[in-house]
Amino acid sequence: DPVTPAAVEEFATDAGALIARVTDRREIETDTDVDVSFADPEDAVRERLDEMSLSSTALDVEEAVRSDTVPDSNVRETVKRRVEERLDDLDGFDPTARDAESEAPAADGDDSDASDEVGTDGQVSMEDYL
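^ that's the sequence the OP posted. Answer follows.
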């Protein structure tokens, strides 16, 4: 049975020791190598953006913020300019307009979007503003 430092400390205090501190200096041999891999954060961000169904304007702003081509000191001005350029085209702020452009209509004719609108009770999410 392996002896843990906590068990030794507990035994010492039960035997009347005022303070018991144990430092385990044993060297434990490990037979297995640990293989650690990390997920690519860029892939995770791209996947999440695909799930959010953002408008074309929101995707343009996202690209300006995350892109290495725009210096950090110019991001605010670049985003402001890009949004101002699209103010006349309000369809650029509509997530459904981007979906209609990027995806073909469903061939089976299933319109499940009507039932989705009923469940929201007229509430607006942050995604609706993007």
